[in-house]
């Protein structure tokens, strides 16, 4: 199993007080970036509620799991605060993170509530397989989140946003490493767990936030970060990594999701992998407009 002590030794609140806020204000945010950052903050602020749901599950009371989840929740909690601070410094009025988080949770979509009930039932009836699924699902979501932070850090014109997102991405990479290593070790030699994980992924894969945002909102957010062909590149990388887990060879759920959302996207953000080798002219123009 992954060494929890290594994670504890490097765990800390993401540093953001030392950032050059005056430079952040001068650089500013595009309207698209301001919208994306609010979405990031919304999703990160929900981890505390996820932790409360997880605490109800007996399988989560394993000492090592509980240690990791406590550390994970602490770090994620401050991601939302850091992003909200950047938004305010750049002139975007946002409510305090936990006030907005509580409001969002109260309006949580039916999907999130159903998922909580299903999660509780699975944890009671098939605890070993459920924890394997939990770790694999966490790995996929953390890797996608990390890719998103790294992509914004690479493409934004605001150097302070770039630095903040690099710092957050570094923590997300550690979270991914824990989930992925745990999933690999739990699935190895466990065919029943492999079958369950594959079944749930193939029938229900959605990026994080599906219980809080509409499918159209979620699709727009993702395409703003990964326009055109870049969406299929990033999601293909996610598929490649998850397919390396025991029993998941050939699984392409992220790519299938990318195809499914194409009709929901702005015309300039669309791209079809059926025409490999070149991004469409409109998508290229869309991508260039974000540079």
* Low-pLDDT sequence parts: 275-291
CATH class: Mainly Alpha
Number of strands: 0
How much helix is in the residues? Answer: over 70%
Whole-number tally of structural domains: 1
Outline, from the CA principal axes? globular
- Please work out how many helical segments DSSP would assign: 14
The main pleated sheet reads as: none
State the secondary-structure class: mainly alpha
- Assess the beta-strand content as a share of residues: under 5%
SSE succession: HHHHHHHHHHHHHH
Radius of gyration: 19 Å
C-alpha end-to-end distance: 42 Å
- Overall pLDDT, averaged? 87
* CATH architecture name: Orthogonal Bundle
Kindly summarize this structure in a few lines.
With 291 residues, this protein is mainly α.
Notable characteristics:
about 290 residues, mainly alpha, Ribonucleotide Reductase, subunit A, 14 helices, disordered C terminus
Structure description:
Residues 275-291 have low confidence and may be disordered. This protein has helices spanning 4-10, 21-27, 31-45, 47-54, 63-89, 97-106, 110-125, 127-155, 159-187, 191-204, 215-225, 229-242, 253-260, 281-289. The chain is globular and about 55 Å long. It has a single domain, classed as Orthogonal Bundle (Ribonucleotide Reductase, subunit A), CATH 1.10.620. The protein is built from 14 helices and no strands. Helix 7 crosses helix 8 (127-155), helix 8 (127-155) crosses helix 10 and helix 12 packs antiparallel against helix 13. It is mainly α and 291 residues long.
């Amino acid at each position: 199993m992954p060494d929890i002590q290594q994670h504890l030794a490097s765990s800390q609140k993401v540093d953001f007080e030392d950032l050059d806020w005056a430079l952040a204000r001068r650089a500013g945010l595009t309207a698209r970036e301001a919208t994306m950052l609010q979405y990031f903050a919304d999703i990160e602020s929900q981890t505390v509620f996820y932790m409360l749901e997880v605490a109800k599950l007996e399988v989560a009371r394993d000492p090592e799991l509980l240690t990791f989840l406590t550390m994970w929740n602490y770090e994620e909690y401050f991601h939302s605060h850091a992003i909200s601070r950047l938004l305010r410094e750049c002139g975007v009025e946002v409510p305090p993170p936990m006030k907005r988080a509580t409001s969002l949770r109260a309006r949580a979509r039916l999907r999130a509530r159903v998922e909580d009930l299903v999660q509780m039932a699975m944890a009671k009836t098939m605890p070993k397989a459920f924890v394997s699924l939990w770790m694999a699902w966490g790995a996929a979501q953390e890797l996608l989140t990390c890719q998103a932070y790294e992509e914004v850090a690479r493409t934004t014109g605001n150097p302070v946003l770039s630095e903040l997102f690099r710092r957050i991405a570094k923590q997300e990479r550690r979270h991914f490493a824990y989930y992925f290593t745990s999933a690999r070790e739990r699935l190895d030699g466990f065919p029943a767990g492999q079958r369950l994980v594959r079944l749930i992924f193939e029938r229900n894969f959605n990026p994080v936030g599906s219980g809080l945002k509409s499918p159209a909102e979620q699709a727009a957010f993702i395409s703003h970060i990964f326009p055109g062909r870049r969406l299929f590149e990033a999601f293909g990388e996610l598929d490649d990594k998850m397919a390396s887990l025991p029993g998941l060879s050939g699984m392409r759920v992220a790519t299938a999701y990318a195809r499914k959302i194409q009709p929901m996207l702005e015309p300039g953000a669309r791209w079809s992998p059926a025409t490999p080798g070149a991004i469409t002219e409109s998508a290229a123009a869309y991508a260039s407009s974000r540079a």
